[in-house]
């Protein structure tokens, strides 16, 4: 769902709230539109319910994931060594929040790097500091909760800067 949220325009409009912070900090992991949070959690919850997972197991998993997301988005300089190849930790996930949309299409994993490895989106950033420029290019993006809650519901045709469809739109207007 995370990867699809970067590819499908209407999903991106809900997900970009998560990417709107101008700096990474521990609360970014839970910075989400409520509808997008339900869409992200929905498929996994359906699998857990169908498999008959006890509520205590589901609650424990959400607790672990919440703490992990806090560390994954924390503005802390820590390294887990070779485990960065297995776990979606801050060391690799911070590249996913780069302001330039096309550069940020890596390291989607919320907990594991498994899917990134399968889809070829894992980027090993060990030893590379890179530009710390995170957030969105839109300078007029709402900063308050209500504005961010309403923004995805407004009609718009704007794609993020660097998005393939945005580049196609620009070349069509130049022709």
How would you characterize the overall build of this protein?
The protein contains eight helices and no strands. The chain has 175 residues and is an all-alpha fold. The chain has one domain (2-126, 142-174). It is globular. It starts with a helix and ends with a helix. The relative contact order is 0.15. Residues 166-175 have low confidence and may be disordered.
Helix/strand order: HHHHHHHH
Distance between the termini: 35 Å
Number of DSSP helical runs: 8
Helix content: 40-55%
Kindly report the average pLDDT value.
85
Please state the CA-atom Rg, rounded to the nearest Å.
17 Å
Content-based structural category: mainly alpha
The number of strands is: 0
Number of discrete domains: 1
Largest sheet: none
| β-strand amount | under 5%
* Bulk shape: globular
Q: Unreliable stretches, pLDDT < 50, 5 or more residues?
A: 166-175
Descriptive labels:
mainly alpha; 175 residues; globular; disordered C terminus
List the helices and strands and how they pair.
Elements: H1 2-7, H2 9-19, H3 34-50, H4 55-73, H5 90-93, H6 114-119, H7 145-150, H8 164-174
Overview in brief:
The protein is mostly helical. It contains 8 helices and no strands. It has one domain.
């Amino acid at each position: 769902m995370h990867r699809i949220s970067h590819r499908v325009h209407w999903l991106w409009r809900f997900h970009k709230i998560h990417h709107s912070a101008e700096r990474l900090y521990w609360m970014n992991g839970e910075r989400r539109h409520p509808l997008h949070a339900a869409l992200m959690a929905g498929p996994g919850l359906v699998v857990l319910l169908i498999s008959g997972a006890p509520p205590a197991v589901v609650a424990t998993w959400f607790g672990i994931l919440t703490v992990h997301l806090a560390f994954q988005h924390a503005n802390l300089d820590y390294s887990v060594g070779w485990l960065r190849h297995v776990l979606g930790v801050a060391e690799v996930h911070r590249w996913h929040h780069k302001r330039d949309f096309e550069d940020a299409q890596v390291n989607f994993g919320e907990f594991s790097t498994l899917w990134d490895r399968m889809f070829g989106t894992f980027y090993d950033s060990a030893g590379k500091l890179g530009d710390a420029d995170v957030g969105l290019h839109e300078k007029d993006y709402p900063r308050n909760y209500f504005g961010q809650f309403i923004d995805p519901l407004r009609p718009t045709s704007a794609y993020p800067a660097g998005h393939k469809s945005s580049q196609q739109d620009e070349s069509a207007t130049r022709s």
